[in-house]
From TrEMBL:
<keyword id="KW-1133">Transmembrane helix</keyword>
<feature type="transmembrane region" description="Helical">
    <location>
        <begin position="94"/>
        <end position="122"/>
    </location>
</feature>
<dbReference type="InterPro" id="IPR025966">
    <property type="entry name" value="OppC_N"/>
</dbReference>
<keyword id="KW-0812">Transmembrane</keyword>
<keyword id="KW-0472">Membrane</keyword>
<dbReference type="InterPro" id="IPR035906">
    <property type="entry name" value="MetI-like_sf"/>
</dbReference>
<dbReference type="Pfam" id="PF12911">
    <property type="entry name" value="OppC_N"/>
</dbReference>
<dbReference type="GO" id="GO:0005886">
    <property type="term" value="C:plasma membrane"/>
</dbReference>
<feature type="domain" description="ABC transmembrane type-1">
    <location>
        <begin position="92"/>
        <end position="292"/>
    </location>
</feature>
<keyword id="KW-0813">Transport</keyword>
<comment type="similarity">
    <text>Belongs to the binding-protein-dependent transport system permease family.</text>
</comment>
<dbReference type="InterPro" id="IPR000515">
    <property type="entry name" value="MetI-like"/>
</dbReference>
<feature type="transmembrane region" description="Helical">
    <location>
        <begin position="134"/>
        <end position="157"/>
    </location>
</feature>
<feature type="transmembrane region" description="Helical">
    <location>
        <begin position="270"/>
        <end position="292"/>
    </location>
</feature>
<dbReference type="InterPro" id="IPR050366">
    <property type="entry name" value="BP-dependent_transpt_permease"/>
</dbReference>
<feature type="transmembrane region" description="Helical">
    <location>
        <begin position="21"/>
        <end position="44"/>
    </location>
</feature>
<dbReference type="Pfam" id="PF00528">
    <property type="entry name" value="BPD_transp_1"/>
</dbReference>
Amino acid sequence: MKKLWRRFKNSFFWFSFRRDPVAIASFSILVILTILSFSAPWIAPHDVYESASIDIMDSELPPAWMEEGSSNYLLGTDIQGRDMLSAMLYGMRLSILIGLGAVCLQAFLGVMIGLIAGYVGGKVDSFLMRVADVQLSFSTLMVAIIISAIFQLAFGLSKYEELAVPLLVVIIGLAEWPQYGRTVRASVLGEKKKEYVEAARVIGLPRWWIMFRHILPNTLSPVLVISTVQVANAIMSEAALSFLGLGMPVTKPSLGSLINSGFEYIFSGSWWITLFPGVLLVTLVVVINLLGDWVRDVLNPKLYKR
């Protein structure tokens, strides 16, 4: 462990990170937001999943610093009487989990399909890439809306609300795997012509061993770059679906469902229900994207400015 830590401290990755104040600030904010979200059960003033602690008479209370505000609700309450600060902490945790889960699924599908298409080639490559092309011809949000709507019609709204989190992971994951598939395929096409792959073939190594043991590790750098950006895209996709009523239900707060629940009341004076979750969502997505841009520059020496 000490040896690995020493190698990390002497690496170009750590050296470039220390020299980039934007990367440091983005990483720090992301870590703080992540810790706060996953600590919600312990640090949130109220449990938004405990119906006994929610009073409908406290609905639409303004933030504590306003005239009608209450010190019990620092950022006010929503239309159900839930504490906004607590709902935002729980909602951010749910949004991050959905984003990470969706990226893991789309990365797995995209890497496997891209690896097989690039190495096997021929009709297999043509078929898999045509499937990717067809899916890319539709917007990610459109694919997600179609899958979500079909599931709700087939199994009902109550079943959808019960399985909302895993379903959103699957929906967003299936909608965005072509990004990984095409990138990995392009990397594999370049790698499989190199001498180390030819040497592995000559000594009789199995095809699957060459693919997963030799080629795959050399194609993971672009996957890491894509993943940092795709986490932000997945969080935005969840927020967009929830805003359209096809994502998280109102009873399970996410940043998107919180924005949706207060949108129709924003012009009646209850602006905080939408504004605070919206600012938090934008902050989360921006810091992830800034961190992704930095990772891209570090892993691509041609783009990195010394």
